[in-house]
User: Fold these one by one.
Assistant:
Number 1:
Amino acid sequence: MASPNPRQRRAQAAIAASLGQIGFALPGSLVSRSTACGKTGCRCQADPPVLHGPYLTWTRTVDGRTVTRKITPAQQAHYQTWFDNARRLRQLVADLEALSLEVFDADNPPHQR
């Protein structure tokens, strides 16, 4: 079995260094939503409608269940870097997995599998 080549080792080292630079990370999605309440005569039922909101919601999965929380604009400003870090973390892991597959495929052509 062959080892990763120098380029692949450098790429892995760069990914590992980037992983070491990531701080706190909040998983999930942060979304701004405006909604209609459905009450007759409410401004959200007018033509054109004036929806309620916007409301910031943070949705993530906990123990296989979807959990949604409302957050304030101040919380978003404070934690936005953490949401960005989680997105960067997912990208780095995907890059490392792709690099690992590249090394595996170079060492194990399809006809040998």
Number 2:
Amino acid sequence: MPIQTILPNTQLADMRHRVESESTAMQIYMNSDQYPLPADNRMLNTLIEIPAHPPELLVGNDRAVEDAENAIKIFEYLGPLNRTQAADPRLWATLSHITFWEYCRKRWPEANKGSGYILEHWFERPGGGLGALRRNAISRLWWAANLTVAPWDSDLQLSHLKSSDRFKFTRILLSQAQIFQDVLEREYGSNLRLRTILLNSLHAYMPKVSNRDKLSKVISMRLLLLLKERHLESLPPLEMEKLVDTLVARAAEQQNTA
């Protein structure tokens, strides 16, 4: 199988500097069919084996469905990376600037918003905390799938949530941009069991409210407050599930009666 290659740090630094200092760089991201790498550019080899041909990513009018399908495609293309590989900004910048350049330009077309917008979606924005690598156009898709694929395989206590669709929770996570943000950019989103149970409850109650983004925001705030008082991670799965489900149900009811 072919080996994934990545841009060297020196080239990546030059690209970042160009975005930050040259107004003409915006035109590249808006109008160029491919990123203009220098003729003497040398790529570095990684230990990541990839299929001969990258998947064709979807871009249309249903971003929730397309993001979920694309996340599955990217995860299956790259496989389950180790922590070092997944945290390497060179990998994601390479994929967004070379392999999936056309997709990135179509999915995130508002490059005229400025350098911050480009740094966020084509690179890794410095100082971004938990969300830094999860906002890059390609890494966000891989992370979404990696953190939600068949959670019952990693935690047998979640076997009662098992589905024939191994990416059931990937689809839930990406069904709303607000859910993605509230789950993956919070500390509690790093806990497999809590993350899965929360997504399951949100999936059950989202259809019952008119403002789904508001429900996700409210749950995120209340869960953060609750975690200051209780160690939910130490609860037995069924007790954790009951508590989270009650939290979501009450928030949904309050929203509908407001």
Number 3:
Amino acid sequence: MNEYSQQVLQLVSELEKLHHRLDLSKAVGPDYFEPGMMEYLDQSEGQYDAKTGNLLLRFDARGTRYDGRTELIEHVRTGDSVQVVRDKENPFNTNNFTLLTEKGKSLGHMPAELCNAMAPLYDAGALQFRQAKVSFVEPISKRSRHAKQAVLFVELEAKLNS
């Protein structure tokens, strides 16, 4: 198996994990709760059409409580456009993708597992992002008084070139 095929398999594996979260949301009752693990399962999704190369991902943004993002997310609405920008200079992960508002303000980052699977394909020109938008948002002002950060999910449509 060549390197490209391995990279595609890694990406498909991450998409399957996202889709599994959605499936799990249908299997557990509303009273089932595991902080940080089981919240907002129904907002996740990962699909890949091998015939067309189209991908659909819905994932939760990470790092939403840092650098003034909590306050910024108070003004974000479902359907708002998001820019997904490659961030090779990130000191924590050189495979990082940052999520920006239309005005270029950071909302957070794509989860590291997705970044690590997508970056090699993106850098090689084999993966193109078509559109990204906010698919779910719950600002900290709408959450429990114990919440430490806002919740933000992004829906990303992409195409994998063969």
